[in-house]
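Q: I'm writing up a methods section and want to include an example of the input and output format. Could you take the sequence below and give the corresponding predicted C-alpha cells, formatted cleanly so I can copy it straight into the document?
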Amino acid sequence: MQWRDEGILLSSRKHGESAAILDVFTRAHGRHSGLLYGGASRKKAAFLQPGTQLSLEWRARLDDQLGTFRAEPIRSRAGVLLDNRLALAGLSAACALAGALLAEREPMPEFFAQTEALFDHFHDDAVWPSLYAFWELRLLEHLGFGLDLSACAVSGQTQELTWVSPRTGRAVSRAMGEPYADRLLPLPGFLRLGDPCSLDAFGQALHLTGHFLNKFALPELDIRSSIPARDRLVSLAQQAARGR
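A: Here is the clean output for your methods example:
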C-alpha cells in the first residue's frame, strides 16, 4: 500500500533511539499515523513542529499497518508565532483537539481545507480568533454535536438570537431567553451576524464550544478530562481580554 498527500503535523513522539511516530491530518486520507525513520534526529526534529505543512509519502505492506512515512517540510507555522503566546496557544489547541478527536483514516477534505485556512492565518490577530471559533463549531458537527444557531428554539424567529441552550445546542432569542439568562450560554454576535470578533467575544465563543466539547463530545469518546492545550488557550484568552 502506498499514497502521497499533503498534511498538517499534529504531533510527533520519539520511537526507539532515532525514529518518531507522526500524527498528521492529511488532505485526502484524514488523520493518519506513521513511523518516520530518523524523525528524532536534530535535522528532522527542527521541522517536526506541530502545525508544519508536510509533503508525505506513506507505505505499508497491509492497509491496516502503522506504515512508514517519508516527509518533507512545505512550510513551518509555529516558528513565526514564538512572540505571540495567544496565537501559538491557538495553534497548539487546534493540533491537540484534532489529534484527540478526529477519527483515524477518515477523509475529511472540506474540514481539512478549513483547518488549513485557520493554520495559514494564525499570524493575523485580526482574523484567526474568528476562524478558530468557527473551526471548533465545525469540529463539533463532525463529532455529531453540531449547534443550531439558525433560529430561536422557542419562537422560531431568526432575529436577536443572543443565547444557546446548554442542553440542546439550539439558539434562543433575547426575549425568550431573558427570564432564564443565568441558565443559558451567551451567543457572541460574530458567530451569527459577522460582527467583529473582540477578545471578549472570542472568550464567549470558547466558553460556548467548550461546554459541548467537555460535556458531550469528550465523554462520548471516553476522554475523561479536558484537553490541556485548549485549557491553556482559554486561560490566555481570558488574560488578554482583561489586559486589553
